Amino acid sequence: MAYSEKVMEHYTNPRNVGTLNKDSKSVGTGLVGAPECGDVMRLQIEVNDENVITDAKFKTFGCGSAIASSSLATEWLKGKTIDEALTIDNMDIVEELALPPVKIHCSVLAEDAIKSAINDYRVKNGLEALELEKSHH
Amino acid sequence: MELPIYLDNNATTPLDPRVLEAMLPYFTSKFGNAASRNHAFGWVAEEAVDYAREEVAKLIGCTEKEIIFTSGATEADNLGIKGVYEMYAEKGNHIITATTEHKAVLDTCKHLEKQGAKVTYLTVKEDGLIDLAELEAAMTPQTILVTIMYGNNEIGVLQPIKEISAIAHKHGALFMTDATQAVGKVPVDVNADGIDLLAFSAHKMYGPKGVGALYVRRKNPRVKVTSQMDGGGHERGMRSGTLNVPGIVGFGKACQLCREEMESEAKRLSALRDKLETALLQLEESYVNGNREHRLPHVANISFKYVEGEGLMMAMKDLAVSSGSACTSASLEPSYVLKSLGLSDDLAHSSIRFGLGRFTTEEEVDYAIENTKKAVNHLRNLSPLWEMFKDGIDLSKIEWAEH
After folding, report:
1. What is the pTM of this model?
2. Chain B partners within 8 Å of A111 (Cβ)
3. Are B253 and B19 in contact (CB under 8 A)?
4. Which residues of B does the annotation mark as catalytic?
5. Are A135 and B403 in contact (CB under 8 A)?
6. pLDDT tens digits for B74-123?
7. B223-250: average pLDDT
8. What is the DSSP letter of B60?
9. Which one of B98, B236, B294, B403 is at 20 to 30 Å from B27 when CA atoms are compared?
């Protein structure tokens, strides 16, 4: 199966690879997936007092589409408010990266990672965790 | 050096130009049907098939009457297993095989289970070899066939064929082997090895695709299989269908070349393979899968922990290799062969198979080493698991979200 140009581009030059201080109150961390399933994503956001995401970083163990999905997600997150970030849908990632049907689960994982990072941030700051739709992939 | 470099010779091999040259006339001027007995076109084709049959037989130490040409090893596996099951139904219905066999064997056995066969799937030890004591214990008076592959397609381990066939024969069962990966690469002799049926194919040994053979022993004992393809009674009634004359000619030539060059090729390839393996094992947390002593000379299967195989292959875009990982929603399951060795799923997902071949050069191996090292390091820089490992976090203690 050939990868789309956009997947190749993100894979070759991944954006925002790295690690934020997970113990900081302004940082939310989402760790989703499992090694035995062949993909694990860690996505982190740094949020300022206005609820704006000022930085986002990722590291991903997985195939090229999983790496590209998480790289794209960090690009989209920067500058968005938390509420805006919650509206990112996995199908937006599918469309942007032209993922084939067998790779849709990579985009679902990226959406899960975003929501999981936001929840981590909320809980750290005394807010309730949001009820997340159970993904089924 | 041309890119990309082909290092997937266990999937298929390029056709040797000498084989192509031998085949070409049989597509055009010598196009006859080998079964046409009443004119020169048929005689020429038949003679070519006879000559090829001798060459094929010589490579595995049998007589030409014991070779049944098929469309490939999958068909030969089907014919051997189903043919024996049907032919020896009165004697028993038990078949013994192993969990690391090719799907052509496993799925054929599953098919027969639906028809009433009892099948024992032997597990393998962590080096990929079967346990002879377990085989012995699995034998029953109803066992009609033991079918164990010669060399494994994913990890290259060579099973103790002589010992296995001796156990099968002691209990009155036939012994069959899928030797697709081994024939032409290591010496295979049906008499010395005690083999009653053997399946193999041309395209794994620099011959064309679409042609293979089943060896069926004719003496001590005389083995019979029921045909699975009915029609004109070709191949002594065991496999009907007009013979693929150019393919068979190519198969014969490929076998001749393997017979003449196997010894020196095996030495050259195992030296190159060892060079590749030694260099890649210098990477931290990398492991060879399968027994390193009893194996084919041209295969290395290596797991690079904390990187995912499919992602890794993308970074090795100048190398054509294969991975034990299958990252698709249809199949999140990693290689069943690697899992049979007891490898954890994450290590199975991290594996790459390098398959060297007749046309692999040392320059290409050197390039592959550098390319692979770079790719593994690139992916590890992206890997949260690698970072956790480096931070001393025990990954097995983390509660991973099911998905």
Report:
1. 0.91
2. none
3. yes
4. 327
5. yes
6. 999 999 999 999 999 999 999 999 999 999 999 999 999 999 999 999 99
7. 96
8. H
9. B236
* Cα atoms in the Cβ-side hemisphere of radius 13 Å centred on B79: 31
Do the Cβ atoms of B400 and A137 come within 8 Å?
A: no
Q: What is the pLDDT of residues B238-290, one digit of tens each?
A: 999 999 999 999 999 999 999 999 999 999 999 999 999 999 999 999 999 99
A106 included as an active-site residue: yes
Q: Is residue B149 a contact partner of residue B177, using CB atoms and an 8 Å limit? A: yes
Q: Where are the alpha helices (DSSP H) in B154-240?
A: 161-170, 190-193
In residues, how long is chain B?
Answer: 403
A136 vs chain B: nearest CA distance in angstroms? 7
Element (H, E) at A44: strand A39-47
- State the nearest Cα–Cα gap between A106 and chain B, in angstroms: 9
Q: What is the DSSP letter of B231?
A: S
Which chain A residue lies closest to B395 (C-alpha atoms)? Answer: A35
d(CA A93, CA A78): 15
Give me the helix-helix angle, B362-382 and B245-280, nearest 10°. Answer: 60
* CA separation for the pair B377, B258 (Å, rounded): 38
CB contact under 8 A, B382 and A60: yes
**Alpha helices (H) in B27-155, listed in sequence order:** 40-60, 73-87, 103-114, 132-138
Q: What ipTM was estimated for this complex?
A: 0.91
Burial class of residue A111 in the structure, from the number of CB atoms within 10 Å of its CB (0-12 exposed, 13-18 middle, 19+ buried) = buried
Question: Residue B252 is inside which H or E element, if any?
Answer: helix B245-280
